[in-house]
């Protein structure tokens, strides 16, 4: 009986995390449209609700009402399975992410490994969607996405190895604890090259601009989800945005001190901001990264495919390997306030 | 109680998926069943408190190896009828191999005297208090450091060999030299031309 209660408690915690996450995804699309339109001197959505605030709900309703078209030559089972495989890892990885001091669903010792394992499974949804659609554009998009995600995963993994060396733990909460202190105590400073590599590969992992050749509208229509419509398409959309928020959350935990305030431990400013709960700081840091995503999209032209591969294999991976050696040197000499 | 239920659910899925790997007609379905096999066995390892092994299994096999497998299987145009042709002919040989493998496994298990009480000890909470990964790291870099480094060298050699096999320079290709592109200067690309301005009403 007590086990059942425990299970129910875990399910309640999951619901309490996933529902706000879906709301965040909905309003992320709104924020994206508003910010990009501001950058392009337009107004963006402004008809539904006050300043267009109900637009994401209208969009969700529209997608719900639409028909899910099954292409006649598609592999039915895999065609339906693919969106689920895309969203599952995007949600599962949230289990180990600490939102605040002790606010985490599963505080496990292998947290970082678990995150890597879960994010590495996201590629299945994309590949299967492309293959099951039985369409050349979808298959091309899936191939591009697959190759890109597999290559950038290596750089991303190496960048996170640097974090685990610096923190001396794979437990996400302990990684944050290792960064206790003001803004210059966080890992972004000693691990700056790894931070940059992580962020670039994070953008590439989520197939966002300037690395969105998987969807490249001007070349292959919409890439792997070209045959999807209605709610099936919406699930891919959800997965993409949930992944963006996840990558931002991970970046905040690994490099920007998770739930710590930027003035933590400072003489005057520290106590002044003590009343702000950690989860607020965490959300602000996530918002910073999400804004960067949008900013990139509005600023950079799409990378050419071979140059994406070159950047991943010949630039980012060597940078991480060199910096791993530097980090081990810093750990051994207990360099600065970080180690 | 719940742990037992979870174990049997996962074990059932594992066996069913393993059967599907060899019986599925579509090779992509086979590969995906293999993914499911890896995933469920990782879950079983997690239940045995071998969290590092379980997660590494997903990370390496599900996240990387099987993705490449799927790529290859999707690209191949496999004719299932041709694949099935030799089935009855190779059946006796396959059965023989299977019997030999089962015998070998039985011998290994019998020789090591494996009994289930050892597992109970492994899941002893006092023992599992220490960090799984830390323990593995300590053992790998002290007791087994030479075999470990040797395995790493073998893998590195395999990488270099694979790259060497594909690295064929063909003459006459229009390759971009990125370094040259980056190092280029204004003087190489831009030519300033002074022209007299044209007459306004000259048609």
From TrEMBL, chain A:
Membrane topology reported for the UniProt record: Multi-pass membrane protein
The entry's keywords: Cell membrane, Membrane, NAD, Oxidoreductase, Quinone, Translocase, Transmembrane, Transmembrane helix, Ubiquinone
Subcellular location: Cell membrane; Membrane
Any one GO molecular-function label of the UniProt entry: quinone binding
Spans traversing the lipid bilayer: 6-27, 77-99, 111-132, 152-171, 183-200, 220-238, 245-263, 275-295, 315-333
UniProt superkingdom: Bacteria
PANTHER family: NADH DEHYDROGENASE SUBUNIT 1 (PTHR11432), NADH-UBIQUINONE OXIDOREDUCTASE CHAIN 1 (PTHR11432:SF3)
Family statement drawn from the similarity comment of this UniProt entry: Belongs to the complex I subunit 1 family.
Record's protein name: NADH-quinone oxidoreductase subunit H
Native organism: Spiribacter salilacus
Record lineage: Bacteria, Pseudomonadati, Pseudomonadota, Gammaproteobacteria, Chromatiales
């Amino acid at each position: 009986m007590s086990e059942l209660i425990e299970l129910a408690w875990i399910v309640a915690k999951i619901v309490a995390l996933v529902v706000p996450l879906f709301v965040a995804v909905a309003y992320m699309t709104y924020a994206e449209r508003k910010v990009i339109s501001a950058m392009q001197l337009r107004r963006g959505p402004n008809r539904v609700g006050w300043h267009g605030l109900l637009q994401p709900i209208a969009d969700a309703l529209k997608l719900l009402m639409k028909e899910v078209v099954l292409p006649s030559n598609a592999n039915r089972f895999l065609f339906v399975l693919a969106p689920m495989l895309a969203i599952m890892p995007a949600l599962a990885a949230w289990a180990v992410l600490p939102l605040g001091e002790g606010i985490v669903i599963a505080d496990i010792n292998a947290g970082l490994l678990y995150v890597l394992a879960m994010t590495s499974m996201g590629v299945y949804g994309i590949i299967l969607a492309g293959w099951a659609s039985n369409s050349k554009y979808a298959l091309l998009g899936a191939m591009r996405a697959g190759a890109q995600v597999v290559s950038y995963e290596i750089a991303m993994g190496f960048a996170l190895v640097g974090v685990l060396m610096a923190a001396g733990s794979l437990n996400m909460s302990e990684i944050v604890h290792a960064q206790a202190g003001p803004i210059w105590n966080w890992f972004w400073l000693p691990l700056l090259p790894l931070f940059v590599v992580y962020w670039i590969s994070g953008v590439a992992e989520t197939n966002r601009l300037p690395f969105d050749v998987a969807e490249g509208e001007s070349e292959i229509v919409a890439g792997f989800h070209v045959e999807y419509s209605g709610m099936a398409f919406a699930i891919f959309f959800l997965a993409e945005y949930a992944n963006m928020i996840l990558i931002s959350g991970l970046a905040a935990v690994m490099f920007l001190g998770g739930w710590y305030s930027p003035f933590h431990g400072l003489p005057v400013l520290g106590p002044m901001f003590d009343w702000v709960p950690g989860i607020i700081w965490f959300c602000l840091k996530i918002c910073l990264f999400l804004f960067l995503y949008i900013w990139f999209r509005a600023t950079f032209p799409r990378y050419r495919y071979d140059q994406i591969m070159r950047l991943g294999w010949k630039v980012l991976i060597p940078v991480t390997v060199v910096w791993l050696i530097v980090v081990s040197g810093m750990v051994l000499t207990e360099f600065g306030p970080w180690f | 109680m719940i742990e037992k239920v979870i174990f049997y659910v996962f074990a059932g899925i594992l066996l069913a998926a393993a059967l599907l790997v060899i019986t599925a007609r579509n090779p992509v379905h086979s590969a995906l069943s293999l993914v499911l096999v890896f995933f469920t066995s990782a879950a079983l390892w997690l239940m045995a408190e071998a969290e590092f092994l379980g997660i590494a299994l997903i990370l390496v096999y599900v996240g990387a190896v099987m993705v490449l497998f799927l790529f290859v299987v999707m690209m191949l145009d496999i004719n299932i009828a041709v694949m099935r042709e030799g089935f009855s002919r190779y059946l006796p040989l396959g059965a023989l191999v299977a019997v030999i493998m089962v015998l070998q496994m039985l011998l290994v298990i019998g020789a090591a005297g494996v009994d289930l009480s050892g597992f109970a000890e492994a899941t002893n909470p006092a023992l599992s208090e220490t960090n799984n990964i830390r323990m593995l790291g300590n053992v790998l870099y002290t007791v087994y450091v030479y075999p470990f480094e040797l395995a790493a060298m073998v893998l590195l050699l395999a990488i270099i060999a694979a790259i060497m096999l594909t690295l064929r320079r063909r003459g006459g290709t229009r390759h971009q030299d990125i370094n040259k592109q980056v190092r280029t200067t204004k003087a190489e690309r831009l030519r300033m031309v002074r022209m007299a301005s044209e007459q306004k009403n000259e048609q």
